[in-house]
Amino acid sequence: MSSHCYEVALFGEFFAQDLKSIVNRITLHSESSQQMLYRELVFEPIDAPQQRELGNEPVLLRARKEVTSSDSKWVLYSYLKPESARVHPEATVRPWSTLEIDGDAMAFASALGYIRRSQIYKRGYLFRKGSLVIQMFQQEQVDPKTSKPIPAHADTLWEVEVKTASPVRNTPETPLSVSVEAVMEIQILMKGLLDLRRQDS
Question: Is Transcription there in the keyword field (predicted)?
């Protein structure tokens, strides 16, 4: 039995004109909903170019913080390669580790031997349903002078991530199939309005 913790997820995207009907349907079937604004940084190992030359894809480190709350902490997390579609054809299942840190995420990542590769903001809505979290957002680029978000263009695609709210272990008591079924329920719920699917990246 693997000792990994996993994230189980489905992904989708839609045009702004469908926002109201999609929000309405998800709100109807969720336990809670709120607005979200995340700042997200992506770091890669200092030796990432050498790893790629050797044909290895370096493991990226991500840092996320909820901007609207003054006391929110940085969460560091990292994914390994998703499990094969042969094993999990319905949903993306990938090993996932996560860590909450006090203080400066950039200094922490730097101490681990990582350098910053990119930075974005994600603005939208956050829904909770059972063990799942549903994020619906537009990506916003960062103003290099102020480090503040630049509002997304009106026709920027909305992205949706339906996923387990916290890492899950694959044990006899909590098999991954339970989480796969939970995200599949959302896929069925949104049918005809939003196409949710697995992705390998």
Answer: yes
Tokens encoding 114: 């990582």
Stated as kind and residue range, the H or E segment containing 9 is strand 5-14
Contact between 69 and 90 under an 8 Å Cβ cutoff? The reply is no
pTM for this predicted structure: 0.91
The pLDDT assigned to 97 comes to 92
Do the Cβ atoms of 34 and 137 come closer than 8 Å? Answer: no
Q: Residue 51, class by beta-carbon neighbours within 10 Å (0-12 exposed, 13-18 middle, 19+ buried)? A: middle
pLDDT tens, position by position, 132-155 = 999 999 999 999 899 899 999 989
Q: Position 20: which residue type? A: K
Nearest Cα to 119, choosing from 145, 142, 149?
Answer: 142
The label of the residue with tokens 């894809």 reads 57
Domain ranges of the chain: 5-189
Task: Report the candidate in 164, 170, 167, 159 with the shortest Cα–Cα distance to residue 186.
Answer: 164
For 47-98, the three-class secondary structure string (H helix, E strand, C coil) is CHHHHHHCCCCCCCEEEEEECCCCCCCEEEEEECCCCCCCCCCCCEEEEEEE
Position 201 scores a pLDDT of 62
Beta bridge partners of 97: 78
Using DSSP bridges, classify how beta strands 158-164 and 61-66 pair: parallel, antiparallel or unpaired.
unpaired
DSSP state of 18: G
CB 31, CB 126: distance < 8 Å = no
